[in-house]
Amino acid sequence: MECAQVKYKVVHKLKTKFPVQKMCRLLGISRSGYYQWLIKQQQESVDKDLLIAKHIKDCQAKTRYTYGYRRMQIWLLRETGLNINHKAVLRIMNKYSLCSRVHRGRRYNGFAQATYRYENKLQRNFQSVQPNLKWVTDITQFRTISGILYLSAIKDLYDGSIVGFMVGKNCKTALVLETLKQAITHVPEGNTAGLTIHSDQGCQYTSYEYHKLLDEKHIQPSMSRPGTPIDNAPIESFFSTIKVEWLQDTSKMTMNNVNKEIMEYITFYNNVRIKSDSGMPPLEKRRLAA
Question: Global pTM?
Fold first, then answer.
């Protein structure tokens, strides 16, 4: 039987080049036997696809359909032990309409006359060998039924985690200062010497108050060139991701609801959402480094 299955596989592989009946006769197998084997293979393939699709559907329900096929491949291996080629994952996601449901959004940029300007110390080197060595920060906005809500966030380039964030009804310097103070509370013993924080040239980051806080905490400032968002790509990417994956249209939501969704997403982003580069959520990588 095992020998016959090998022959069936040969016939199936060459069926586009040679007649099935002639190959079966030369290999000493029946054509009906070959077709019965083929039907069984197709049925097993369908059953396997359905099983994988069920796992994928469960994952997408938990993550609000935010996982693409590469992140889904990692999730399947981590959570179910299924080691599946990424092309097969994509095929099944397309087959059962389980692809991510994302839309591109827009973001806020605020530039003003600078009191303090700083050189670009990162120079787009977004790799970090340890936590609390390189942070990036910025502000984005969400339109709600009762006005604009602003999110100030700080991202650690070591693991991609959001180490500090604040939501407010305005984007004044106080919002940025409170975000930074919150992030500093998570640094062991508050030791921020040697830390570099990168921002754009928004007025909040060029202010005297921001400069004073950085100086007090011995934090090195770094700044993007004017009108060059790619210099601060990691935090830009985070803002794009939250709008694409979680808050695609906030115009009909209240400020309280948007605030709640932002907090929920950042918890998910830090603790659950798998990063493609590390194969694990940000804070899991951070715990492993401790």
Answer: 0.70
